[in-house]
Design a protein that fits this description.
This protein has 220 residues and is of the alpha+beta class. It contains three helices and nine strands; from the N terminus they run ααββββαβββββ.
């Protein structure tokens, strides 16, 4: 009688063990198939984000996109292949003024924010003639922009930002640029701004500190 009961109790236990092992194996197999290391260019990220935001608002218009170190651990190689793992893409609804922030992480879009804000100028896709691939090539070839080093520099690897900007030296004009962030040849935090309509460098500055410890930007 005792042996019979022991076998009866062991059977469910064996079944549970097999089930748990099967689940663990399945999770491991699924995790290996996920694109954890997938990276995208600026323009590809815009396309991915548009597909997501249009589910909420057919009147959404791009206003800004910037690569970021958020969510994933950055390295010196970040952005070196002109692609990044995480992008923050901002849109405005042209009718309601709602603003949507879409994070494109490893090629997948996630809506992180939805707020009503002041109207902002939208960016026409047709005006973006170049991609982050072109921008980094230009910044490296013409300005020798280098990647930031972890635990040393503010910018880790390379980063990119698409936005309308105006400059103190050119106060009456607004430019649509992609900024490439990195380190100047002298080892200072720097950015190179390139006009997305023609691929020309408009602005290149590096940050230094004067005798009073105040940060100033100078051309390089």
């Amino acid at each position: 009688m005792f042996k019979f009961k022991a076998r009866k109790n062991i059977c469910p236990l064996i079944f549970i063990c097999i089930l748990v092992i099967s689940i663990i194996i399945s999770i491991n197999l699924i995790s290996k198939t996920l694109p954890q290391n997938e990276k995208t260019t600026l323009k590809k990220s815009i396309s991915i984000a548009y597909a997501k935001v249009n589910e909420l608002s057919p009147d959404a218009k791009l206003i800004k996109i910037i690569s970021t170190d958020a969510i994933v651990k950055p390295s010196e190689e970040s952005g070196s292949d002109r692609m990044c793992a995480v992008w923050n893409v901002a849109f405005t609804d042209t009718k309601s003024n709602a603003e949507y922030n879409i994070f494109v992480v490893h090629g997948k879009a996630k809506i992180m924010e939805d707020k009503n804000r002041a109207p902002k100028k939208g960016i026409n896709d047709s005006d973006i003639k170049i991609d982050s691939t072109d921008v980094l090539k230009i910044a490296k070839e013409h300005k020798n922009l280098k990647p930031g080093i972890p635990n040393k520099d503010w910018a880790i690897g390379y980063h990119f930002n698409l936005d309308y900007v105006s400059y103190y030296e050119i106060p009456d004009k607004e430019f649509l640029v992609i900024e490439a962030f990195g380190i100047s040849p002298k080892g200072n935090f720097a950015h190179v701004d390139i006009d997305v309509t023609n691929g020309k460098i408009i602005y290149s500055k590096e940050k230094i500190y004067n005798e009073d410890g105040k940060a100033i930007w100078i051309s390089f």
